[in-house]
Amino acid sequence: MHHKTKTALVILTATVMLAVILSRPPVWTRLSEAVEKVTQPGKPDLLPVTRIVFPVRNATISTIFLDPKYFDGTYGAALKGQWHTGWDLNWGTGDQDLGRPVYCVGGGVVVFAGQGAGQSWGNIVVVKHNIGGKTRWTRYAHLQDIQCKVGQTLQAGQQLGTIGKGYHNKWVAHLHFDIFQEKPLTWSHWPGGNKTAVLQYYIDPQQFFTTLKAVQP
Ligand SMILES: [Zn+2]
Q1: Where are the beta strands (DSSP E) in the chain?
Q2: Cα(67) to centroid(ligand 1), Å
Q3: DSSP letters of 117-150?
Q4: Are 155 and 190 in contact (CB under 8 A)?
Q5: Residue 86 CA, ligand 1 centroid: distance in Å
Q6: 159 DSSP β-pair partners
Q7: What range(s) does the M23ase beta-sheet core domain occupy (predicted)?
Q8: Long-range residue pairs from 204-207, CB within 8 A, at least 24 positions apart, any chain
Q9: Taking a C-beta distance cutoff of 8 angstroms, is the pair 80, 71 a contact?
Q10: 204, 180 in Cβ contact below 8 A?
Q11: How far is the CA of 87 from the centre of ligand 1 (A)?
Q12: What is the mean pLDDT of residues 82-111?
């Protein structure tokens, strides 16, 4: 083989290999795709949601969607300048709610159950639902215990975990709950000060529960 031909062959091979590597989705995308395979439309786990309950029984809503007090630093300097993506339940009641049940708000399938990324979330569960023909994901965070598994079908009001204090007991016991209207890049998604991202990915739980006539679990 001529030297020139050999060089060309090496360059071609390297180019092809690089193209293959670059075209592969990152690990987290592949993992979430694996999860998606068990939750394809038409499967019983995505039957339309017919009943909606609140995630905690008789809870106090401590922090609301896009809460201005969260943003302005009232709830702690570390949170200042960040937009809250959903509800915090029972934050203002100390740790007396620690270990209380957290319920799945509607029928669906668990797509994530485990430790969230970073040093805040602690345990997270995400459930995928078919609500009025649209896909929605509910997220339950800072859990003390997780009582469900990925791929498991849950009914409205079925316990999926308990109220906890987040990563290394960082917070006063409370449930952080939010709803994705669009699939985020990761299940630990947190938009921080990016309000546009909050409005793109999340739904106001107040609007969600009112529209769907939620009842106590
Ligand atoms: Zn929160």
Answers
A1: 61-63, 87-89, 101-103, 108-115, 123-131, 134-143, 153-154, 159-162, 175-180, 202-203
A2: 10
A3: STTT--EEEEEEEEETTEEEEEEEEEES-B---T
A4: no
A5: 6
A6: 103
A7: 84-181
A8: 204/64, 204/65, 204/66, 205/65, 205/86, 205/87, 205/177, 205/178, 205/179, 206/64, 206/65, 206/87
A9: yes
A10: no
A11: 6
A12: 96
- What pLDDT digit, counting tens, does each position of 41-80 carry? 444 457 788 899 999 999 999 999 999 999 999 999 999 9
Cα-to-centroid distance, 28 and ligand 1 (Å): 24
User: Measuring CA to CA, which residue among 179, 25, 189, 171 is closest to residue 117?
Assistant: 189
| 42-46, 54-58, 99-103, 108-112: least confidently modelled range | 42-46
CA of 195 to the centre of ligand 1 (A): 15
Q: Compute the distance from residue 27 Cα to the ligand 1 centre, in Å.
A: 27
Ligand 1 centroid to 149 CA: how many Å? 23
**Rounded CA separation 44/37 (Å):** 13
Residues forming beta bridges with residue 91, ordered by sequence position = none
Q: What is the dihedral of CA 123, 156, 95, 141, to 10 degrees?
A: 20
How many whole angstroms from its chain centre is CA 203? Answer: 12
Pick the closest to residue 174 from 120, 111, 108 (CA basis). Answer: 120
CA pair distance 194, 198, nearest whole angstrom:
7
* Predicted TM-score of the model (pTM): 0.80
Distance 23 CA to ligand 1 centre (A): 36
